[in-house]
Design brief:
Rossmann fold, alpha/beta, 7 helices, 8-stranded mixed sheet
């Protein structure tokens, strides 16, 4: 029998804890990407969040060490005493996140891809590659040789939880253009830094699925946020105002020639701040 993973004995960031809380039941595969030491995935394994949890990173020594840790805390089912329980399985992948092998698990499998702690530009590139690869694989399986990647015609099999480190406006705009819709979002402050956590779904056709999420239907992904400004108590409202002040100040300091749409972005955030001040 393996050792017991005690989350309380490990320093787990508020970001990872919040992401863990945002992961619902109902997925066949959860992919903890750029997983570092695998703490988020271990939280998911601990509560059997999905039949299979995947750990993905391109740093080989890190993945080798993580495999040893996982074997220690979450041994294969045949090595445990509780063989009759529906326990999550795990798999470690040492590869580029852009090359996730989603298609090999079948067309009906429902995937949740989690990417946190990377910059906005890289995050957009990774999501764009994952969506394009998945659609290309589907086209090959269905015989569609035209390459018409219309996400609104996709089945609801791929979702993302994303937490970019920077460039949230750019990330949101780019992912909206990609056809992703919003299921939930959360503004978090940790160690004097703010983070936006986005739960996105692949298509409008997915909107009637999970009624346990914050919204019963997927909504358009706003470049400046929507759900996370609603229903706030006094403390959360003050936090949101500080974040908006900081964000507005950041864009105001950027020279106009570097960001031609700067005034549009500032005005959009100022509009939200005015609404919170009412």
């Amino acid at each position: 029998m393996g050792a017991i993973f005690e989350a309380s004995a490990v320093k787990i960031s508020q970001r990872l804890q919040q992401i863990n809380q945002m992961v619902e039941q109902g997925y066949d595969h959860i992919w903890d990407c750029c997983c570092d030491h695998g703490l988020l995935g271990m939280l998911l394994l601990q509560r059997n969040a999905a039949p299979k949890v995947h750990f993905v990173d391109c740093v080989a020594p890190l993945m080798q060490q993580l495999s040893l840790e996982l074997a220690r805390f979450f041994p294969p089912h045949h090595e445990t005493e509780n063989t009759d329980l529906a326990l999550s399985e795990w798999q470690v992948h040492c590869l580029d996140v852009a090359a996730l092998p989603l298609a090999q698990y079948g067309k009906q499998a429902k995937h949740l891809v989690i990417i946190a702690g990377v910059g906005g530009e890289l995050l957009v590139e990774l999501v764009r590659s994952i969506v394009a690869n998945q659609q290309t694989q589907r086209d090959a399986q269905s015989g569609n040789k035209l390459g018409n990647h219309d996400l609104s015609q996709s089945t609801c099999q791929l979702e993302f939880i994303l937490c970019p480190v920077h460039h949230n406006y750019h990330v949101r705009s780019a992912l909206a253009e990609l056809g992703l819709s919003l299921k939930d979002e959360y503004l978090l402050e940790e160690n004097q830094r703010f983070y936006e956590i986005l739960h996105l779904t692949q298509a409008n056709a997915c909107s009637k699925t999970n009624t346990s999420s914050k919204t019963t239907e997927a909504v358009p992904l706003s470049a400046t946020g929507s759900i996370m400004w609603q229903g706030l108590d006094a403390d959360k409202t003050n936090q949101a105002k500080r974040y908006l002040d900081q964000t507005i100040g950041h864009y105001q300091r950027i020279p106009e020639h570097r960001m031609p749409n700067k005034s549009q972005i500032v005005a959009a955030y100022q509009h939200i701040l005015q609404q919170l001040n009412c």
